[in-house]
Design brief:
Length: 108
């Protein structure tokens, strides 16, 4: 089941585009073709949802601002609200970072 509403699950990674890397080289860029996993995106009133599924049981769900996906190779940075779901959101952001920071050569 796919969720296209930002409030449907706490494991959505809210991300924004950073103008430049702060302090070091960026680890995650918007390069879904390089991530090596099937993905699907959809514009919604919340923003642009992107679901990346490297394995049948693993799914990373990103919410990006605006109706359109970021430009190719844009630097992504997570935005993790201090709310009741903060631990789950932090864990989801870390899991996506571990996945996306190690691009694969071809889709799985």
């Amino acid at each position: 089941m796919l969720f296209w509403a930002a409030d449907a699950t706490a494991r959505i990674v809210r991300a924004q585009v950073a103008d430049t890397a702060v302090g070091s080289a960026p680890l995650v860029r918007f390069e879904p073709e390089q991530w090596g996993a099937p993905y699907v995106g959809r514009p919604t009133p919340d923003g642009y949802h992107l679901i990346v599924a490297p394995n049948p049981g693993i799914r990373h769900h990103l919410l990006l601002p605006g109706p359109d996906p970021p430009t190719q190779a844009a630097i992504l940075t997570p935005v993790i609200p201090w709310d009741a779901w903060h631990p789950e959101r932090l864990d989801a952001a870390r899991a996506f970072w571990q996945f996306a920071a190690r691009p694969r050569a071809s889709p799985a």
